[in-house]
């Protein structure tokens, strides 16, 4: 575990990080180099500022003016490095720039203060180190070669020409050597310490990231176990629902049968009051049987035990059969129920009973949520490339659905109004079952609705079995 850094070190790093691009701070190595560039730049600026009194004390005349100008120029050019770091978002260019400034300033100082007798030689030795730390190993090799070339050039100019000036007093070399030697030691030590701080910070962040990853792995494993338990519970629930629904149907069918026989007896004996009560019993029992059938079908779908029996049929005929069967419900609610078929005869290979079940649920819902309005069923054909689809659109002028509930209504046992005082009865299974059945037949179902202005439920089914229809059904409008 990396040691926790002292407060002043964290404050220093936070100060150097201020204003750096976030991309530089995300990668540990890029962040370390960026911190070294910032630290080196400000160390060079500080060194140039402290050099001013030394130049003033050891030079005179044109030498003082030239040396001060070079010192101030190095200071100003060094500040371009942090700007490049923020502008480019990479430490390479800024690292080369600051290394070049240090190299140029050192070569100038060496060439104007006695060449190989100059006290500034020690500064030239840290140039490759700076380049490697700030811009990478290749940069260190490059600037090492440049420094060697510079040494050779200075050696040639010192021994074979008279072009190198002498601005410093040789009698002051001991003083300046001590000063710049101490400054170099402090600079290298400061940069090394900064590099260690950045490294420790990187290690601490890496350990924190590893701990978070380990925690995430534990959470993922826990979620996987919970998912397996949920799948097992759902399977058990589906099996239980299928068994119970099947067991409930047997006595309920007997109740319906005996109630219908009693209705016939009441008719034969002329007992209208008793007949009306018995008819209500038959109706309630049939309604309960329909709910049980929905539960049974939904559990079969979830357990993938519901088989499809495809046959050639005319979709418009199925829609008309369903609407004729639901006309009494439409009249009870004061609704007009109509069917509009395609211009040309349409044929498809579908499961007739499952298609009727879907249409009964959709049209029945439309009639239930519409009072003294209109429910229209449109049947048409659509082609998408080589595939052909049958489209059923059930449109009503009822209460509509809020936008936030469009997806929720297709979940099992979910109703838009689930309060105990809701106006409309139901278990919330119809639309969930429709969605499952439509998807089993390779189709899609969607809804377009505006609250208070009615709804349109659209079902798209492939006219041929999905295995022979290349593209999937397009998504229904929502």
Automatic annotation (TrEMBL):
Gene3D superfamilies linked: 1.10.287.130, Histidine kinase-like ATPase, C-terminal domain (3.30.565.10)
A GO term from the CC aspect: plasma membrane
Residues spanning the membrane: 35-56, 62-85, 92-110, 116-132, 139-157, 177-195
Coiled coil: 199-228
Enzymatic reactions: ATP + protein L-histidine = ADP + protein N-phospho-L-histidine
Histidine kinase domain sequence ranges: 243-465
Origin: domain of life: Bacteria
E.C. numbers: 2.7.13.3
Pfam families per the UniProt record, alphabetical: HATPase_c (PF02518), HisKA (PF00512)
Listed SMART domains: HATPase_c, HisKA
Keywords per UniProt: ATP-binding, Coiled coil, Kinase, Membrane, Nucleotide-binding, Phosphoprotein, Transferase, Transmembrane, Transmembrane helix
Top EC class, one word: transferase
Name under which the protein is recorded: histidine kinase
Species in which this protein is naturally found: Nannocystis pusilla
């Amino acid at each position: 575990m990396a040691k926790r850094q002292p407060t002043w070190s964290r404050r220093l790093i936070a100060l150097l990080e201020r204003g750096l691009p976030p991309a530089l701070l995300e990668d540990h190595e890029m962040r370390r180099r960026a911190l070294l560039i910032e630290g080196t730049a400000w160390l060079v600026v500080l060194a140039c500022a402290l050099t001013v009194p030394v130049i003033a004390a050891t030079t005179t005349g044109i030498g003082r003016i030239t040396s001060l100008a070079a010192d101030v120029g190095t200071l100003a050019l060094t500040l371009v490095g942090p700007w490049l770091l923020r502008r480019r978002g990479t430490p390479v260019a800024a690292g080369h720039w600051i290394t070049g400034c240090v190299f140029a300033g050192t070569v100038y100082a060496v060439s104007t203060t006695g060449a190989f007798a100059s006290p500034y030689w020690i500064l030239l030795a840290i140039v490759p180190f700076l380049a490697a730390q700030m811009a990478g190993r290749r940069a260190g090799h490059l600037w090492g070669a440049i420094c060697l070339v510079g040494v050779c050039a200075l050696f040639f100019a010192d021994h074979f020409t008279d072009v190198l000036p002498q601005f410093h007093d040789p009698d002051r070399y001991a003083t300046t050597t001590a000063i710049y030697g101490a400054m170099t030691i402090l600079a290298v030590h400061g940069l090394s310490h900064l590099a260690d701080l950045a490294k420790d910070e990187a290690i601490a962040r890496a350990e924190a990231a590893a701990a978070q990853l380990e925690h995430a792995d534990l959470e993922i494993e826990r979620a996987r176990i919970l998912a397996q338990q949920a799948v097992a519970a759902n399977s058990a629930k589906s099996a239980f629902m299928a068994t119970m629904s099947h067991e409930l149907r047997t006595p309920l069918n007997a109740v319906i049968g005996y109630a219908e026989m009693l209705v016939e007896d009441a008719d034969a004996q002329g007992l209208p009051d008793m007949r009306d009560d018995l008819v209500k019993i038959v109706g309630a029992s049939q309604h309960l049987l329909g709910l049980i059938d929905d539960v049974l079908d939904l559990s079969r779908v979830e357990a993938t035990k519901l088989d499809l029996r495809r046959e050639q049929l005319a979709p418009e005929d199925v829609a008309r059969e369903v609407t004729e069967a639901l006309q009494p419900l439409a009249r009870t609610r004061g609704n007009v129920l109509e069917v509009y078929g395609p211009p040309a005869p349409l044929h498809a290979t579908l499961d007739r009973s499952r298609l009727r079940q879907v249409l009964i649920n959709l049209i029945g819902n439309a009639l239930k949520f519409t009072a003294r309005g209109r429910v229209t069923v449109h049947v048409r054909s659509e082609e998408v490339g080589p595939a052909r689809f049958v489209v059923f659109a059930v449109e009503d002028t009822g209460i509509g659905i809020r936008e936030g509930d469009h997806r929720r209504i297709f979940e099992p046992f979910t109703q838009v109004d689930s309060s105990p005082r809701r106006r409309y009865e139901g278990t919330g299974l119809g639309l969930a079952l429709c969605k499952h059945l439509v998807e089993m037949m390779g189709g899609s179902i969607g809804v377009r609705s505006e609250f208070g202005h009615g709804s349109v439920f659209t079902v798209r089914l492939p006219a041929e079995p999905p295995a022979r229809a290349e593209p999937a059904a397009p998504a229904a409008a929502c």
